[in-house]
Structure formats: structure tokens, C-alpha cells
């Protein structure tokens, strides 16, 4: 069969979703092992002279049960459960099949014990400690019942004294496997916790590295990176962008009159109102102290001027609650310039700074832009 046909068949059998494929691969392996066990059972029956009819009944039970599990997973029906692999159900079912096989193979029944261990190992990567112990207990009960029944029905093949020994072997083996599974489950749980903690720490570090703590705005480093990116984009796509330096007027006075905490509140209020006044694509960043920068990507001068004028007016209308000191009114001065192709960012920023100085010198609360060239 050609490779592509095999791949198509695999896709038909396992589907597209990676998580579902993993579950179905596991179930397919269990199915293959059960099918192999069925062949072995029929062979064993041939050697021991057991009932063929019962062996076929067992085959129908095992294959039918696993087919039902496969259908439940493949159809997506099992996704409603916490464990969509139905691990406990699969293991419980396989254990019951093993116990029924134990009742049929007579003198060859010792071969069932390693299979029981193998079945429980399927749960090692999935089961929680409680389920592992529960399944071990279930296996003990089912095997105990089968052993007792067979010792009564066929004492010549299943001598009661032998069955007691067999039961004791299981009673040692199963809790040990369950304990190992429980230990693995705890390790898995710890690893998952550590992964979550690491992801949280990484997100925190990213926020610290890129955000200004007081205002939550992008910090100087982040703004530098964003401007570098915008410069590259403007070179590639030949579009304009503008940069504005925004400085709160007489901020020192606010600190002096209302205290540093009120000054901080003003900075936060400015950041919030400033962001609301800008377009979603514009970036407002804290450049340092009471100085902010606005990056207006893909924007020509006329709309940039309108945007900065809107920002200035909305800030002038803002009143920041200063507690007993009443409400604080603030204004901003803005130096706005367009980036000229061929210039460096430093040159553009210096121009914006000079324009800001002009705005301050002209009386503050105004936007200064490059004279039209
Ligand atoms: N509350 C507070 N104040 C800050 C912060 N960063 C800088 N400042 C203060 O901002 C003030 C800036 O004062 P100046 O540079 O003299 O400018 P100004 O008073 O705004 O005057 P003009 O810019 O000329 O209008 C200083 O008093 C700084 O201490 C901050 O994070 N919180």
C-alpha cells in the first residue's frame, strides 16, 4: 500500500485532533493487545481442551467492549468527561476480560498475571492515585470471585489451595502497582504545578520588562522596540508615521501642593484618559517622569495633529480626585513631528523634543508641530 493511502487510513482511524489521536492510539494499542490475547486464548483452549464456545463468547465480549470504547472516543462523545480517554473504564473492562480468561485457560492461568500488570500500567500516565487504588481493589475483587467460583466448580483444575496462593500473589502485586501509579500521579501533578508557576513567573517578568509599574503603559524599553519596528515597517511599506512627546505642565507644582501620592494619581489618570483619547493603533508610553511618548503608526501629519489636539483637549477637561484637596486640573504640552525618511529615530525624537520646548515656551497647554515644508 502506498504511503499516502496508509496516511489517509491512519487519519480516518485516528482523526485530526492531536489530543484525540493520542487517546485513540492508546486505545488501538489496547485493542491490538486484546486481539492478540484472543488468539492466545483460542490456542490455549486447543491445548487444554476448554470450551470453544466460551472462548468465542470471550472474544465477542473483549472485541465488542473495546470497539465501544473506541467509538465513544472517536465520536467525541467521551469529551464530556474529565478524562476523555476513559482510562479507568478501559482498564476496568480489560481487567474483567483478564479475569474471564483466567477462568478458561485452566493450567495455563499463570500467564494471566503479567497481563494484569500490563493492563494496570496503561493507567500509569493518566490515573490519579485514588483511581489506581480503586482499580487494584476492583481487580482483587473480580479475580477473587473468579478464583472462588472456579475452585468450587472445577476443583481438580483450580485446586482451592492453589487459588489461595494465586490470590495472595495478586494481593501483593496489585497494591504495589497501584502505589507506583500513585507516585507517578503525584510527580505529574507537581510537574504540572511547576509548569503553571513558571508560566506565571514568565508572564510577570514580561510585564515587568515591558510595562511601567505606575501607569501600566508600555515602558521606555518597550516603546523603543515598538518604534524600531515601526521604522522598519515604514521603510518596507513606504508609509509615514509620527511621534509626539507629551509632557504634563507644571507637574512639580502638583507634587508640591498635593503631595507625591496625588502626583502619582494624576499620572495614572493621565495614562488612562490618554489611552482612551487615542486610536487603538496608537501607542502611548511612559518615557520617564512626567514625560510620555505617542507613536502614531501609519499616520500622516494632518490626522496626527487632529489626534494630538483631541488628546490635549480631553486632558484639559480631566479632573483628578485629590481627596480633601479637591479635584486637580491638568494640561499637557505636546511636540509632534512626522518621521522623515532617511532620518534616525534619535533625530525625530530630538525634533519632537524641540517642538515640546517651543510649546512650553509659548505658554503650555498646546500642540506644536513642524512648520509645513
Ligand atoms: N508623583 C510623581 N512625580 C514624579 C514622578 N516622576 C517625576 N516626577 C516629578 O515630576 C516633576 C517634573 O518637574 P519639572 O521637570 O520641573 O517639570 P514641570 O513642573 O512639569 O514643569 P514644566 O514641564 O516646565 O511644565 C518633578 O518634580 C519630579 O519629581 C513620579 O513617578 N511620580
**Tally of individual domains:** 2
**Strand-pairing-aware structural class:** alpha+beta
Summarize model confidence as the mean pLDDT.
Answer: 93
The largest pleated sheet is described as: 5 strands, mixed
Calculate the terminal CA-CA distance, rounded to whole Å.
73 Å
- Radius of gyration, rounded? 37 Å
Low-confidence stretches: none
Order of helices and strands: HHHHHHHHEHHEEHEEEHE
**Strand count:** 7
| Helix count, DSSP H or I runs of 4 or more residues | 12
Bound molecules: guanosine-5'-triphosphate
Folded structure, characterized:
With 373 residues, this protein is of the alpha+beta class. It folds into 2 domains: 3-203, no CATH class; 220-369, 2-Layer Sandwich (Alpha-Beta Plaits). 66% of the residues lie in helices and 9% in strands. The chain is built from 12 helices and 7 strands. The strands form 2 sheets. A 5-stranded mixed β-sheet has the order 2-3-1-6-7, with helices on both faces. A two-stranded antiparallel sheet has the order 4-5. Strand 4 (319-321) and strand 5 (327-329) form a beta hairpin. It is elongated. The mean pLDDT is 93. Guanosine-5'-triphosphate binds at residues 214, 247-253, 255, 260, 263-264, 267, 289-290, 360, 364.
Secondary structure blueprint with pairings:
Layout: H1 3-14, H2 18-48, H3 52-74, H4 87-102, H5 112-121, H6 129-153, H7 160-210, H8 220-237, E1 242-248, H9 251-258, H10 260-277, E2 283-288, E3 291-296, H11 301-316, E4 319-321, E5 327-329, E6 332-338, H12 345-361, E7 367-369
Parallel strand pairs: 6-7
Antiparallel strand pairs: 1-3, 1-6, 2-3, 4-5
The protein binds guanosine-5'-triphosphate (GTP).
Guanosine-5'-triphosphate is lined by residues 214, 247-253, 255, 260, 263-264, 267, 289-290, 360, 364.
Transmembrane segments: 29-47, 53-73, 85-102, 108-125, 132-153, 165-185
Keywords: Coiled coil, Membrane, Transmembrane, Transmembrane helix
Domain GGDEF: 239-372
Amino acid at each position: 500500500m502506498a504511503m499516502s493511502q496508509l496516511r489517509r487510513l491512519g487519519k480516518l482511524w485516528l482523526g485530526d485532533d492531536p489530543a484525540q489521536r493520542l487517546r485513540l492510539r492508546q486505545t488501538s494499542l489496547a485493542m491490538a493487545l486484546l486481539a492478540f490475547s484472543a488468539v492466545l486464548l483460542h490456542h490455549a483452549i486447543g491445548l487444554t481442551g476448554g470450551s470453544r464456545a466460551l472462548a468465542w463468547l470471550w472474544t465477542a465480549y473483549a472485541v465488542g467492549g473495546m470497539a465501544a470504547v473506541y467509538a465513544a472516543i472517536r465520536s467525541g462523545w467521551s469529551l464530556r468527561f474529565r478524562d476523555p480517554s476513559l482510562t479507568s473504564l478501559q482498564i476496568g473492562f480489560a481487567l474483567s476480560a483478564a479475569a474471564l480468561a483466567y477462568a478458561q485457560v485452566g493450567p495455563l492461568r499463570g500467564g494471566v498475571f503479567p497481563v494484569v500488570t500490563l493492563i494496570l500500567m496503561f493507567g500509569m500516565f493518566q490515573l490519579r492515585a485514588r483511581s489506581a487504588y480503586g482499580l487494584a481493589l476492583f481487580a482483587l475483587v473480580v479475580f477473587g470471585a473468579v478464583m472462588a467460583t472456579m475452585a468450587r466448580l472445577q476443583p481438580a483444575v483450580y485446586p482451592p489451595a492453589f487459588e489461595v496462593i494465586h490470590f495472595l500473589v495478586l494481593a501483593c502485586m496489585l497494591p504495589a502497582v497501584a502505589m507506583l501509579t500513585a507516585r507517578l500521579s503525584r510527580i505529574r501533578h507537581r510537574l504540572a504545578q511547576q509548569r503553571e508557576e513558571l508560566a506565571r513567573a514568565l508572564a510577570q517578568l514580561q510585564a515587568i520588562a515591558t510595562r511601567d509599574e505606575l501607569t501600566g503603559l508600555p515602558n521606555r524599553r518597550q516603546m523603543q522596540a515598538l518604534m524600531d519596528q515601526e521604522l522598519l515597517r515604514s521603510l518596507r511599506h513606504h508609509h509615514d508615521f509620527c511621534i509626539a512627546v507629551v509632557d504634563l505642565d507644571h507637574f512639580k507644582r502638583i507634587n508640591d501642593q498635593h503631595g507625591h501620592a496625588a502626583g502619582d494619581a494624576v499620572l495614572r489618570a493621565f495614562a488612562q484618559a490618554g489611552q482612551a483619547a487615542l486610536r487603538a493603533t496608537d501607542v502611548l508610553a511612559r518615557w520617564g517622569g512626567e514625560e510620555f511618548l505617542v507613536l502614531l503608526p501609519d499616520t500622516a501629519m494632518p490626522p496626527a495633529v487632529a489626534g494630538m489636539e483631541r488628546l490635549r483637549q480631553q486632558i484639559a477637561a480631566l479632573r483628578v480626585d485629590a481627596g480633601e484637596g479637591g479635584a486637580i486640573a491638568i494640561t499637557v504640552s505636546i511636540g509632534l513631528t512626522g518621521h522623515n525618511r532617511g532620518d534616525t529615530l534619535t533625530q525625530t525624537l530630538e525634533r519632537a523634543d524641540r517642538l515640546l520646548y517651543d510649546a512650553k515656551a509659548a505658554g503650555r497647554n498646546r500642540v506644536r508641530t513642524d512648520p509645513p515644508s
